[in-house]
């Protein structure tokens, strides 16, 4: 079987969904499990699709249902638009990882033949476009004054920022856990005094009751008998 040898370019004359249907039709003819289609699919990619595929997780690359869903989401949701329109209308989706969005936008730029990887004006405009559409105002405020001149510097700086944020988030979570654990073990000073006073009162009260009981209780019969016997013995001696 001859597998389709290239993904379609994303312009108005191409239909990515039609290409995917053709690929699936061809692969069904091989009677192989769907997950084995992933290798053939990868070998069919070219241009920007190769970069798109590299950015996917290992699990996605090996699972056809995930891989095809990613392809449809990335290439087919707006196939009626030109590559240039897709690029300039791109926005970060809800819950989309910011690094994933950058990879997606880079792919759109390659499909639109925007030369953003070699520095210069195109790169600066690409970085600016990313910051305006990433949905992270704090990141935009941090990076805009830096006037980054190439995409690789942007990726490195963004990676460093995300590492710091992850580290800070981990520290904050750790402090919360420590505080929660400490609160469960500690006793408020006021409560501690109350506990000590109760214990002290209990011990004092016990001692008092023991003393009173010893004074009020009758003497042991054995001891009384011993005194009486001693008294008779002394009289006999006289």
How is the secondary structure organized here?
Layout: H1 16-28, H2 37-43, H3 48-54, H4 58-62, H5 64-76, H6 83-89, H7 98-111, H8 121-133, H9 137-143, H10 151-185, H11 189-216, H12 221-237
Task: Please explain how this structure is put together.
This protein has 238 residues and is mainly α. Among the domains are: 10-76; 83-173. It contains twelve helices and no strands. Helix 3 runs antiparallel to helix 7 (98-111) and helix 6 runs antiparallel to helix 7.
Brief account:
By secondary structure, the protein is mainly alpha-helical. The chain is 70% helix and 0% strand. It has helices spanning 16-28, 37-43, 48-54, 58-62, 64-76, 83-89, 98-111, 121-133, 137-143, 151-185, 189-216, 221-237.
Could you state the order of secondary-structure elements as H and E?
A: HHHHHHHHHHHH
State the share of residues found in helices, binned by percent.
55-70%
What structural class do the secondary elements suggest? mainly alpha
Largest sheet: none
- The outline comes out as globular
**SS summary, helix count:** 12
Strand percentage = under 5%
For the record, give the distance between the C-alpha atoms at the N and C termini, rounded to a whole number: 137 Å
| Number of E strands | 0
Report the average pLDDT across residues. Answer: 72
Mind telling me the C-alpha Rg? 41 Å
Q: Which parts are unreliable, with pLDDT below 50 for 5 consecutive residues or more?
A: 1-13, 184-189, 191-204, 220-238
Region (Disordered): 167-238
Protein name: Retrotransposon gag domain-containing protein
Domain Retrotransposon gag: 41-114
Biased composition (Polar residues): 227-238
